[in-house]
Backbone:
């Protein structure tokens, strides 16, 4: 599945990237998105997926190990909490879930097998 083109990633980052770097960023991004929404991600991807995927891929290439701050001599650079490594930020998670038609908020999730019967009994004073 093509979430984005290597040329789009190079253009967004404004620096040369090897094909291997682009492919790795794409694969890691796809894994992160698939881990969040599973098979609801279609091929071709739904409208809006590309912007989330490119944001994640750029972060993978600019801050792959999730560094929060670094210092060299007198220069100190701090990164925002949401800009760390391969994980999706809370906003990206909500957006990708909305795009594929999933609830983006808290919900009740029933993970019981479909053939399971309810074993809940209500206690009542007699």
Residues:
């Amino acid at each position: 599945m093509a979430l984005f083109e290597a040329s789009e990633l190079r253009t967004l980052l404004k620096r040369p990237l090897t094909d291997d770097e682009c492919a790795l960023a794409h694969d890691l991004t796809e894994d992160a998105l698939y881990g969040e929404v599973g098979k609801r991600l279609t091929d071709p991807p739904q409208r809006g997926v590309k912007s989330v995927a490119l944001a994640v891929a750029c972060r993978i290439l600019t801050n792959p190990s999730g560094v929060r701050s670094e210092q060299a001599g007198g220069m100190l650079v701090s990164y925002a909490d949401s800009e760390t490594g391969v994980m999706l930020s809370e906003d990206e998670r909500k957006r990708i879930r909305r795009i594929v038609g999933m609830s983006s908020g808290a919900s009740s999730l029933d993970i019981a097998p479909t053939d399971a019967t309810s074993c809940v009994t209500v206690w009542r004073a007699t």
Observations:
- The radius of gyration is 20 Å.
- The mean pLDDT is 82.
